[in-house]
């Protein structure tokens, strides 16, 4: 049944197009402040709002502050519309995220 095959292909192409969303990775703030990371240094892993790279203690203080504000996640990279509780909203393939 060649007509049905054609139709199926068209449908799967459409689904692929709409689900091709780019998502930024997120860091779980409570996780990185937890036991597993206690002995590891967070130096150089985080930046403040001004783009300054933070040292270990500074990074931990910033993350603890964020946690106190009810934030749960930290974005990896520039993420437009990032939500500190639900994370990256997803970006469609055509969107310029840089
Ligand atoms: Zn994002």
Model description:
The chain has one domain. The radius of gyration is 20 Å and the shape is elongated. 36% of the residues lie in helices and 10% in strands. With 98 residues, it is an alpha+beta fold. It has a two-stranded antiparallel ribbon. The structure holds zinc ion. The site of zinc ion (ZN) has 5 residues, from loops.
How far the N terminus sits from the C terminus, by CA atoms, comes to 45 Å
Question: What percentage of residues falls in helices of 4 or more residues?
Answer: 25-40%
| 3D shape | elongated
CA-atom Rg in angstroms: 20 Å
> Which sheet architecture does the biggest sheet show?
2 strands, antiparallel
Q: Which stretches are low in confidence, meaning pLDDT under 50 for 5 or more residues running?
A: none
What amount of the residues lies in strands?
5-15%
Instruction: Trace the largest sheet across and list its strands.
Output: 1-4
The hetero compounds bound to this protein are: zinc ion
So how many helices?
3
In total, the number of strands is 4
The number of distinct structural domains comes to 1
Order of helices and strands: HEEHHEE
Structural class assignment:
alpha+beta
- Average per-residue pLDDT, rounded, comes to 83
């Amino acid at each position: 049944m060649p007509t049905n095959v054609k139709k199926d292909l068209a449908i799967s192409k459409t689904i692929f197009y709409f689900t091709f969303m780019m998502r930024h990775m997120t860091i779980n703030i409570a996780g990185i402040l937890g036991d597993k990371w206690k002995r590891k240094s967070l130096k150089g892993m985080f930046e403040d709002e001004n783009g300054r790279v933070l040292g270990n203690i500074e990074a931990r203080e910033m993350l603890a502050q964020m946690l106190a504000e009810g934030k749960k996640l930290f974005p990896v990279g520039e993420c437009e519309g990032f939500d500190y509780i639900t994370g990256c909203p997803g970006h469609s393939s055509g969107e310029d995220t840089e």
